[in-house]
Amino acid sequence: MSSMWSALWSNPLFGVLLTVLSFYIGTQIAKRVKSPLANPLLIAMILCVLVLKGLNISYEDYMEGAQFISMFLVPVTAVLGLSIYRQRRILKEQFFPIVIGCLAGSLLSMGSTVVLCRMLALHSDILYSLLPKSVTTAIALDVSEQLGGLRSITMMAVIICGTGGAIIHPLIIKLLRLKDPVAIGVAFGTASHAIGTSKALEMGEVEGAVSGVAMGVAGICTVIIALFL
Amino acid sequence: MDKKILKQLSVILVLCLVAEFVVGLLPVTFPSSVMAILILALLLGTKILKEEQIKETADFMLSNMALVFVPLSIGMVEDLGLLKGQVAGFLIVVAISLILTFLGTYATVRIVQKCMKNLALKGGEQHE
Q: Measured over all CA atoms, what is the biggest interatomic distance in chain B, rounded to whole angstroms?
């Protein structure tokens, strides 16, 4: 009997179902609980981990199905081109603030990482893994590999920057009463990549679109800066 | 309607593969996702591709973007052991750098906006 169940859990469709369903529950909870902590991704992650541990399902079995969802990382990122196109007017008007903001932000992200890692005497593996932490996963993994970092540490830092940013940035915005939607969008996209962008989309269309643009531009800036390291 | 989604999904997937191909031709490592963003924006901007040709599927992807990060986030939980002994340092670096980046970027954008406004006032209407 128990082997019948475990055959069910290791069916790739189970991994897909678990991911989609927990994300759906996450979005429903996030809609009702208006707290920055109630982030769909964070809720989905906790639900999935609880189910996997509870039913004693290995990560490998889960990924058997869930990898089909991960596979859509590039297409889902690609359609940000549409939100850039929709905001072409604002991009044209604010070309220099956006591009210079992204460049400064990327330099600041990488520079502060170097300084802080040195100050705390962290291992150089960690430093290299952390350098691309503010850009979208697909780019960050490439940059990390190119510099000699560890993929899973980079992924952790990227996810923390994304989810952490989606939680912390709205608090900073409220606390410091930041108002400019373009500057908010650029800051979201540069500091917290696609996860930040999905939060920025919730805050407003301009914020979301600019964040999507900034995420792409900051990604390019980071790739270019990394070429000099 | 059902055929529409199939067509739109195909367009988006072709776009990704084209981006993958173009990236392979470059002499430097350049992420295919960013290339795909650039190509899509270019195609839409030059009217080669119309918004209607991807609209519904793209909007679904945009509004549920974070879904694709769920499996990755679980991989991260699995690998927490790699950070043994350096967790505190790791978190401090990420948190401080994250906040600095956000504030620094916001401030830079505001400064550039103000500079450009001043320039526009001085130089007439040369600047958009």
A: 60
